[in-house]
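Retro notes - structure team

What went well: the batch runner handled both jobs without manual restarts.
What didn't: labels got mixed up in the shared folder, which is why I'm recording both outputs here explicitly, each with its sequence directly above its tokens.

Job 1
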Amino acid sequence: MNAMVFLISTIFNLYLMVVLLRFWLQLSKADFYNPLSQFVVKATHPVIGPMRRIIPSVGSIDVATLILALLVAMGKYLALSLLLGGNINPLGMIIIGALSVLKEFLTLVFWVLIMRAILSWVSQGGSPFEYVLHQLTEPLLSPIRRVLPPMGGMDLSVLVAIIGLKFVEMLLADFLPFY
């Protein structure tokens, strides 16, 4: 049973992260022709394409992608509930789905920041992957850099952002016991 729970959770979480990455790429206006962006678009377009014909965007916010993320998160908990013989509560599924989307987004931001930090140590800056990571994280890091300038050649903005993310996750866990 644990193996099935692991497999279902992993598959749904990975696809949810790809959907959230698409939303984040669109929101940050990242390079559409980058290989990472192309992978994300191709992995999500079969579902989001038809949804966009029905659900319009609101300004720069792609509502169809957000709804897909919520549906994927709700689908995960529905599949796990059916597998484990749990109770299916539609309102509870929506709430748990929304919190799951938030939690996975914070996890995605954490890992993107970690990847950017590691690449900054070993890369020369010419990678298309690194360029997209820069486009995604720069709106988060530039306000931190204005307050906390580089110290001795070290940019601590990624560290401060990661600490802030973990703080927000802990706050959510304190206020929402099922988070």
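Job 2
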Amino acid sequence: MLTSDLTSDLTPGRPIHALDTLATRLRRLPPSCGPVRLIGVDGHAGSGKTTFAGELAAALDGAPVLHLDDVATHEELFAWTGRLLGQVIEPLRRGEGARYTPYDWTAREFGPVRELPAAPVVLLEGVGAGRRAVRPWLARLLWMELPHDEAWARGMRRDGAAQSDFWADWVRAERRHFAEDPSRPSAHDVVRQSSEGYEVLPGPAGAPGQDRFITHRDGPSAVC
């Protein structure tokens, strides 16, 4: 059943989408980056971050999503901190919309400027979203809980043999990144995908006693 602090937000007779529960919790967080509640979605490549972030954004009534693939480059798989802070974090901190230049992985160059509004909730999705330099600006850090070998295997199947050389370089870079700057120990929640949806549990930095199960199905989600 839903806890009492959530029921006041529910319209009688309205079916409750599964991720509404999590979305409600995120909306109630205090702003962390100017007026914005910046939510990090981190995890290994291939762990399902992009899909999850898209569904969560929809539950947040179309919250903007910044994909870190747009900030990284072939030469800077993880050396993008300055670009993210300068083009995105600083404007949001001032209460202004951000303007950033997304990287085109096919053309190997930066494309036209995109705008990111200073919305009440903004999702930051990608490997390294919970890195040390970004964490002070996050209202919440979610970690997609899938072992790296499973996540990488899924990503390699998705991208096909043509990307095998890239994946070999990526695996080495990701191992090095998380060895030097791990995100999971600072995650407030860990998210596990299942056939019924997503299981959301307290992470290493989360408060105890807030385990909850969130599914894709309509109807109240269990909050234990």
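One thing worth noting from job 2: Residues 4-63+129-223 form one domain.
We'll revisit the folder naming next retro.
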